[in-house]
Amino acid sequence: MISVQVKQEATDHPYKSLTVTGVEARRKCIDSNHPFVPVANNFARQANCALERIRPKPLTDSNFEFEMDFLKCPEFFVADVYCGTARHRVFATHKQLELLSTCKRRFLDATFSVLGDPFASG
User: Fold this and answer.
1) pTM value?
2) Do 76 and 90 meet the contact criterion of CB atoms below 8 Å apart?
3) Which of 1, 15, 58, 63 has the fewest CB within 10 Å, making it most exposed?
4) Sign of torsion, CA 19 24 29 33?
């Protein structure tokens, strides 16, 4: 019964921490004097399995469109720039673009080596 509630909670709130969902479910077991109280991680695993069914498939290449309804701020996506086979997306607020236009110097800092190719399998 509790595991069904955990799975339902996970699908109703997909962006809620699964650990929090597991801890809350465990607390309900304790409060209801349930004879067997599972570990919170077991509930988190059950919630994760439930979410696997509703998650979108992983992207295979960079040719995809953003769901602007999901972003809830269509003006934040400024440009989609192609340079050869590379694709760059530019995100900024109106205020950020305003500040950038008044700058005399611009600096770039990035850590490209931390994340591998997001579209490579394995």
Assistant:
1) 0.46
2) no
3) 15
4) positive
